[in-house]
Design goal:
heterodimer; A: 241 residues; alpha/beta; four-stranded antiparallel β-sheet; 9 helices; 38% helix; B: 225 residues; mainly alpha; MetI-like fold; two-stranded antiparallel sheet; amino-acid transport (chain B); transmembrane (chain B); ArtM/GltK/GlnP/TcyL/YhdX-like (chain B); cell membrane (chain B)
């Protein structure tokens, strides 16, 4: 579904991604872990071109997105993104946040978008908040709305950039539950996360990135219980206590 | 009391000029220039902002030059150069020239106000909108501008107050605005206090009134937060 070949990304002289190659299959749930500054968020953001790769190729459903002339806007409709800081539109209600893109892009009528929004809000358990403004929601509620907003575009892939890092601990569970149910429905997901328990429980595969490279990749059991690489072991010994 | 009477209500000089009426005339000029200069400035400001945000240097370069020159020189010089040199061949009149000069001046500052208002919107908003597949234009219209307007409007009101006060140099090109009216009365009556304090008071009432209206507006804008 997503093929990444020799992905490089530099900011000036600083090389953040040093030739990452990866293949994410349809329906696969992949967690990306690694120390901060390792390039894992940049890796994720390259997949919908919020960061432009310096070189390398990203192929989504057979189409190269980094090729010249590729329609970035069309690609992004297929790839949903959930941010650490939610980034809900504060001047729009919860429902308007969800319906904005499908209506503006002509994918749904206002009525269809409304129905879809209510269906998604039911899924994330926030039907009663449909007419509220984001400022009146808790962090966990905001993130669940953000997930619903991304899903309204009916994407083939969902990218999550540390979706629970900005949440109070008691809010984390609700968001992870929504993500688990998404995974069960067969959504292809790439999740940059610090929630090791979640990564272990939900992922089909875990990727450990350090220093701009994929150090190790494998099933959660293999990677967490029997990490092959010393850097993986060092990282895990710090985060798993 | 006598000086108030002679300064404002009695004929001063051989032409039978009455101070109070002259001040009203001056006030009319001040308000006319401020009002139309603000409109011209707003149009220029929006256009300049779009040029400055363009990807192409062909648009950015003249916009940057315009803002740089206007911000880097006193408005009095801009006014005098425009009236006596640039517009000297055209019959736009003193008030017309003042509107153009202050409009040009204000446009540069307003473009900076708009730019700052847009840049103050969190970058994550653009990222979220673009990640949903919205185009750059749709993102601007639907997500950025509605939020930027809340930053822009209060600063725009402030610019209006600054502009109103800055028009007090219209006398340099021979126009009779509020300030110049006071000066004429002072020079004819040899009484400084009454005409100058009267003018100052009128400026103060205008700016205070406007500030009050502005604070009401800001309160309403904050309601959706």
């Amino acid at each position: 579904m997503i093929k990444i070949n020799q992905l490089y990304k530099s900011y000036g002289d600083v090389e953040v991604l040093k030739g990452i190659s990866e293949h994410i299959k349809s329906g696969e749930v992949v967690s990306v872990i690694g120390p901060s500054g390792s390039g894992k968020s940049t890796f994720l953001r390259c997949m919908n071109l919020l960061e432009m790769p310096t070189s390398g190729d990203i192929i989504i459903e057979g189409e190269s997105i980094s090729a010249k002339g590729a329609s970035v806007d069309d690609l992004r409709q297929k790839v949903g993104m959930v941010f650490q800081n939610f980034n809900l539109f504060p001047h729009k209600t919860v429902k308007q946040n969800i319906t904005l893109a499908p209506i503006k892009l002509g994918l749904m009528t206002a009525k269809e978008a409304d129905d879809k929004a209510l269906e998604l809000l039911a899924m994330v358990g926030l039907t009663d908040k449909r007419d509220a403004y984001p400022s009146s929601l808790s962090g966990g509620q905001k993130q669940r709305v953000a997930i619903a907003r991304a899903l309204a575009m009916q994407p083939d892939i969902m990218l999550f950039d540390e979706p629970t890092s900005a949440l109070d601990p008691e809010m984390v569970g609700d968001v992870l539950d929504v993500m688990k149910s998404l995974a069960k429905r067969g959504m292809t997901m790439v999740i940059v996360t610090h929630e090791m328990g979640f990564a272990r429980e939900v992922s089909d595969r875990v990727i450990f990135i350090d220093g701009g490279n994929i150090v190790e990749s494998g099933t959660p059991e293999d990677l967490f219980s029997a990490p092959k690489h010393s850097r993986t072991r060092a990282f895990l010994s710090k985060v798993l206590r | 009391m006598d000086t108030i009477y002679t300064s404002l209500f009695a004929p001063i000089g051989d032409d039978g000029l009455i101070g109070g009426l002259l001040i009203l005339e001056g006030l009319k000029s001040t308000l006319t220039v401020t009002f139309f200069a603000m409109i011209l400035g707003a149009v220029l400001g929006v256009a300049t902002t779009f040029m400055k945000m363009s990807d192409h240097w062909f648009w950015r370069w003249p916009a940057n030059l315009y803002v740089g020159v206007i911000r880097g020189t006193p408005v009095v010089i801009q006014l005098v150069i425009l009236y006596f040199i640039v517009l000297s061949a055209l019959d736009v009149g003193v008030i017309g020239a003042a509107i153009i000069a202050f409009g040009l001046n204000s446009g540069a500052y307003i473009s900076e106000i708009i730019r700052a208002g847009i840049q103050a919107v969190d970058k994550g908003q653009t990222e979220a909108a673009r990640s949903l597949g919205l185009s750059q234009r749709q993102t601007m219209q639907e997500v950025i501008l509605p939020q930027a307007i809340k930053n822009i409007l209060p600063a725009l009101g402030n610019e209006f107050i600054v502009l109103l006060k800055e028009t007090a140099v219209i006398g340099f090109i021979g126009g009779v605005d509020l300030m110049r009216a006071g000066e004429i009365i002072r020079s004819r009556t040899f009484e400084a206090e009454v005409p100058l304090f009267t003018c100052a008071l009128i400026y103060l009432v205008l700016t205070y009134g406007f500030t009050f209206m502005l604070s009401k507006l800001e309160l309403r804008l904050k309601q959706s937060d």
